[in-house]
Amino acid sequence: KMNMNDGDGGSAVAILQRWSNVLAFILNCSLTFGNNGFGYGKSIEEISDEYQTIITPPGWAFSIWGVIFALEFVFTAWQLFQSSDNLILNEVVGFFWVSACLFQSAWNLTIAAQLFVVSALVLAGIAISLAIICLRITPKEMNQHETVAEYFLVRFSFGLHGGWTCVATLLSFNLAAVANGVSPKGQLVVAIISLAVVVAASLYFGMFKDNLSYSLAICWALFGISSEQGQTSMILGPEIANHIRISSMVCAVSITLLTCVCEFIRVRKVHKDTDEHRKNLISSRNS
């Protein structure tokens, strides 16, 4: 049986990992919430307003960061009290969350300096680090023995962060295109490719990798993109803006429904497998 909360004491690697998580999260929060241009550049809000892209969501969509940081704050505290042999922390999270926090800290610096291509690549580092965590938590054994805390603080929170940074990475490449003077038609091509990638990522993680929150974070962004097509209308005309608006909305609604159905099926299967496992244990004890 894989009990993720048994055992006390702690190996050196586990202790290093736990405290690295704390320090990396503190650094990330310090640079994220203390970012006001760092004295040599513009704030992230100013840059976002100056370089509007075809797929820039409205301001309300970015409120998702509040949920992400709140969940990860709880995770940071929770993981300090888990045993050194906790399977989720050791084999799933590992040092990949430290990696994500360090990349995100670096992103705050590169975007303030308006190094748009570099900041997009750094954002890709965040997205990849979190995607690895999301991919490593999907095996059947993890599903069956996952506690409620592990679901919300690892699978859900890192899925939410991973899905949103997937969108943010592609948004950054669009921002780089605008900042470097790419033509409106060129911007449209970059935007269409970006939307195709995020839709594919949403379907992959939501339907095939048991990560509802990864998919929902992307759908949240798609709802936002659908509601904010003023820039597209200005540079490419209302017809194209309307096509993007409708396409984004249809994708967001369809993927939300599909992934919710997949999650319902997954949870039912996990409960069924767990019940069968318990029955087998009882029958083996009675025989």
Structure description:
The chain crosses the membrane at residues 60-81, 88-107, 113-135, 156-176, 188-205. Keywords: Membrane, Transmembrane, Transmembrane helix. The protein is mostly helical and 287 residues long. The protein has one domain. 79% of the residues lie in helices and 0% in strands. It is built from 12 helices and no strands. The two termini are 20 Å apart. The model is unreliable at 1-9 (pLDDT under 50).
Q: How many angstroms separate the termini?
A: 20 Å
Number of strands: 0
How many domain units? 1
How many strands, what sense, and barrel or not for the largest sheet?
A: none
Helix content: over 70%
Count of discrete alpha- or pi-helical segments spanning 4 or more residues: 12
Low-confidence stretches: 1-9
Instruction: Report the principal-axis shape.
Output: flat
- C-alpha Rg, in Å? 21 Å
Q: How much β-strand is present in the residues?
A: under 5%
Question: SSE order in H/E notation?
Answer: HHHHHHHHHHHH
The chain-level structural class is mainly alpha
User: Which whole number gives the mean pLDDT?
Assistant: 87
Which labels suit this protein?
287 residues; mainly alpha; 12 helices
Outline the fold blueprint.
Layout: H1 12-33, H2 44-50, H3 64-80, H4 87-93, H5 96-112, H6 116-136, H7 140-145, H8 148-179, H9 184-208, H10 212-227, H11 230-236, H12 238-286
Question: How would you sum up this structure in a few lines?
Answer:
Keywords: Membrane, Transmembrane, Transmembrane helix. The chain crosses the membrane at residues 60-81, 88-107, 113-135, 156-176, 188-205. The protein is mainly α and 287 residues long.
